[in-house]
Design brief:
The chain is mainly alpha-helical. The chain has 22 helices and two strands. The chain is globular and about 65 Å long.
Amino acid sequence: MRKRGKRYIAKPRKKEGFMQAVIALMFSQILIKLLGLVYNLYLTNKQGFGDEGNAISGGAYQIYALLLTISSIGVPNAISKLVSARTAVGDERGAHRIFKIAIGTFAIIGLIGSAILFFGARFIANTLLQIPEAELTLVALSPAIFFVAISSVIRGYFNGKQNMRATANSQTLEQLFKTTLTIGMVSVVSILSNVNTVLMAAAANLATTFSIFLSFSYLYIFYKRQRRDVWKDVQSSPVQKRESIPSVVKKILCTSIPMALSSMMSAINKNIDSFTVVRSLKQFLPEAEAKAQYGILGGKVDTLTSLPLSFNIAFATALVPTISAAMAKGDPKTAQKRVSFSLLITMLIGLPCTVGMFIFAAPILNLLYPNANAGELILQISSLTIIFTVLAQTVNGALQGFGKIMVPATALGVGVVAKFILNLILVPIPWIGACGAAIGSVVCHMISFTIGFTVLRKTIPLNLGWKKFLIKPAFCTGIMAVCSYALYQFLGGLYTDRTASAVAMLFAVLVYGLSLLAFKVLTKEEIFMLPYGQKIYKVLLKLRIYREN
């Protein structure tokens, strides 16, 4: 770095590549989901909590998630998009000004969201959820909205500068704190309250608030440490025409609101279950059983079906700034390659997860929830949402990068309307019950993906043939399913069901990986796009799995 007068000329710092960013976020998300599974297993299997406790805490959490969506979700991608477009053309000064104004804007919005949840807790619990016990859990969650709103801006700023460490590390720490605090606080409250389910559920959500505050503290320290380098970049940036604060606020909101609408639709999708399932099931089931059925949906099933998203959300997050920067530089070819590759990897992740969870629904529930293993059919139906959800996730990231930020929200909105109608029709039918909500979710995400993918194909040509994108992955998944289930049946006569399940599922991963290699699903160029791709390809050449052209 050289100093010239009062101006600093910073040495260019190496930015993370696309796949490096993806891998960093992917490992972070996998760890987050695993930690989330740990405390979900603890709560669901804990005496006095179970499916009823999940209904109380989960119902409150979905309302919190909806308000959170309005106040901050969509902000990281929106700020990331705006900042990456500025930094791509060398306007670091403009990028940092967007960041500063966004902090003030969303601090106010987050504060309003927290106030709504705190003061409206009784009305929401009694009237909307019809779960009066959820009032205390809503109050416990209310401060979190403010801190998430500010944290989202910081994450978006560093994502836009293609530095994913802030997002990856803060989210991992948040989940680590959440898991530790949830288990600790619920255990203490369980003893002090003589196993009071309502107080235990409130303690679980209070742990969420504490963990979010600690995550925000990490982000604040991260920014303080990076501030000197950020300021040098700003000082070395050429002075350009300065936009007014109202103009910048308008630009931020015009970008973040459409992006948030997609997440808002997702939150509304979950709240449809909150508003309709217990209400409809009480028509033919006792109240306790109705809450337990909703607890299965909102606790176990949602946790399990969202696990595959952790492998894929990294692509959706990294695509937004990558495509925005490529288009700002006039390089659509790079954007096309990234989108096509990301969609292929998404299919390779989502399809086996869908089939595997469908086949092993009962063994998975017995393995993870021995004290509360109900819900096999609901999980089987819900597993079909996985493939559509992960593909839509990647498609939405690409569409947002291309500036078509209203399409994901519109697509999911159409799906949400379909789910609402199906919930009202199917859930009150006694022989369908909570399975009707699962069917509605499948239809919702199928519609969302279909609309988004159709628009994306019209926006940019995709290098995805049917054989490569669908037939080969389906064939490899079929081999995995047959081999692993056959092993499960064989081991079932020799060992306990839990041992047979664990071994068969590990075997499924091995068989699927070998099938992908045997059928050469990834080309040489696509392998090179992976981290350490050249080294991986050399190993495959030595093993004679691939041959040099």
